Each structure stands twice: as C-alpha cells, then as structure tokens.
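From the methods appendix. Each design record in this collection lists the tokenized structure first, followed by the designed amino acid sequence. Records were kept in a plain field format so they could be parsed without special tools. The example shown here is representative of the layout used throughout.

RECORD:
FOLD TOKENS (312 positions):
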C-alpha cells in the first residue's frame, strides 16, 4: 500500500539528504572549519540529528498512486540553509511542515523523481555547488552516485516525468544560452547523452511540470514568459520531439514570483500547479484534464510562503 511505502521513502529521503550534505561538505570544504568552529564532518553529523521523519504520502480513496499524476511532497528551502517538507493533506493544502535539515546551502538544484512509476517519490537528483550532479535512492542507506560534472552550465533542471516513451523519468536542462536539452534516464539512474530540444527557452522565467496535466497519460509542462503569459506544452512521448506546439493558457501570471508543481496536491488523480504571489501567498491551480486550459481557477492555500527562496 502507498501508506507503508510512503513512510519508508520518507525516512530514506531524510537519510539521503543527510548523506548528500555530508558528501557536499566533505567534498568542497575538506580540511576547513565553519564560522562556529565545527569541521565539515561535525556539521554533517549535526544535520543528521536535525533530520525529521517524513510523514506518509498517500492518495485518497484506495491509497493508490499513479505514475502519470504523482503525489510528491513539496520541499521548501530558506536562504539560511533550512529545508522543510510539506505533505498534501488531501484537501488541497498541506499538513504541518517537517524540517529535513539545516544544511542545504551546498545544494544548488534538486529534482525529485518517481523511477518505478508508482506515483511516489523514491529517487532524487541534486547538483552541488561544484557543478556535480548526483543521484540517490531514497529507500536505501547508500551514498548517492555521482553522475558527472559540468552541470553549472544550466540555470534550470527539472523532470516532468517520462518524456521518452520508456519506463523511466527523464531530465530537462536549460543552458544559459536558452537551449533546452533532454537527458533520458537509464534504469540505474545514469543518463544518456543529451538531446537538443530547441533554442529560445530563455524567453521563459519559469519552466515547471510534474506529471500529466491534460489526462492523456503523458508528462506535460508549462512555461511563463517575461511578459507574464503562461504557455502549455503537451508531452508527446517522443524523445526526439518531446512537446507539441505551445498553447496559450493566459496572461497575468507575472503576479507570481515562483511557480512549482509537486504533482497531485489535492489527491484527485490529476497533477496540479502551485504559484506564490509577491506578497507570499501560495495558490493552488487544480488540474482539470482540459486539452488547452488545464487548470481550474486558483484557490488560496495560505500566506507566509515568502520566507522561502526555493521550492522543488
């Protein structure tokens, strides 16, 4: 059942976060001390004591989850290095937050993925400050695997899901020239050589997606341009041409300073979109399965979300 597997994944996610921090701190500042006099090893150990046990993530009704509309926790980090986890409450909001760690500063990008397509997160990619990409299994107490270096050339890394028609979720990365690249994932978490999706993606301030927005079983994404217009990119399932021509959803999205999708927030079987406005209020746009306008009118979740500098 999703409830027991969610607990295991939650505990393992906490352990992975600790391992990732230890690898990062030891790999980038070995032999030095922090401002408070602690060594990197001591800082990593301190982070381990602060890790929260992640709560259960389940779908409503029979508790099952689907790969095309995953249920992921929303992760939120502060500029101080604190990382928190929010789990959907089944009513379109989130349960009380759980702190994961105080030491997330060395992680510059993180992507949660559902590799076995059961609708729950069990793996994660993260980039450290030295530009290396790592891959970890959140079910096991094993060190993360280094994928490779040079990932600092990208200013966006995300995974809407399975984009290539295989069984694994894939990675998208936008370089600083505005070119979008696709990396297909292999069963062991390693990645193929990159495929060029196309140029001109620097026109967008946000590119997000998690699962299927229009109920066709394929992973989709949305992108907001610099004038505040939101565009819908339907997944095709073909890695050589992974998205159909964009469809305009509407304008006015420049009222928000952060967009993120953690999958199905209200547990109705459709992936949703979250948006934080400039006053710190978080809004939920419920997925409706429409082919051209995939979201319902927004619903207010609550304020105070401007305390975070990043979400994933």
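DESIGN:
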């Amino acid at each position: 059942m999703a409830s027991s597997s969610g607990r295991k994944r939650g505990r393992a996610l906490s352990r992975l976060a600790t391992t990732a921090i230890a690898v990062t701190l030891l790999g980038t500042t070995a032999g030095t001390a922090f401002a408070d006099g602690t060594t990197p090893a001591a800082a990593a150990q301190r982070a381990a004591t602060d890790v929260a046990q992640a709560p259960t993530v389940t779908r409503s009704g029979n508790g099952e989850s689907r790969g095309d509309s995953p249920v992921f926790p929303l992760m939120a980090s502060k500029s101080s290095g604190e990382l928190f986890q929010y789990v959907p409450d089944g009513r379109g909001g989130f349960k009380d937050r759980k702190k994961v760690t105080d030491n997330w500063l060395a992680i510059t990008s993180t992507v949660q993925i559902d590799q076995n397509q059961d609708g729950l997160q069990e793996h994660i990619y993260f980039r450290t400050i030295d530009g290396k990409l790592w891959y970890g299994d959140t079910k096991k107490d094993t060190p993360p695997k280094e994928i490779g270096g040079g990932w600092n050339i990208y200013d966006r890394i995300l995974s809407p899901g399975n984009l290539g028609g295989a069984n694994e979720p894939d990675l998208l990365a936008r370089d600083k020239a505005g070119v979008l690249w696709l990396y297909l994932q292999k069963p062991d978490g390693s990645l193929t050589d990159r495929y060029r999706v196309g140029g001109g993606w620097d026109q967008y301030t946000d590119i997000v997606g998690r699962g299927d927005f229009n109920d066709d079983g394929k992973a989709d994404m949305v992108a907001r341009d610099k004038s505040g217009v939101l565009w819908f990119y339907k997944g095709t399932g073909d890695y050589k041409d992974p998205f159909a021509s964009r469809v305009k959803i509407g304008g006015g999205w420049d009222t928000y300073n952060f967009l993120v999708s953690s999958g199905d927030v209200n547990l109705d079987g459709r992936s949703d979109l979250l948006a934080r406005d400039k006053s710190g209020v978080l809004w939920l746009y419920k997925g409706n399965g429409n082919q051209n306008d995939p979201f319902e009118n927004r619903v207010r979740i609550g304020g105070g979300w401007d305390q975070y500098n990043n979400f994933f």
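APPENDIX NOTE: Confidence is low (pLDDT under 50) at residues 1-56.
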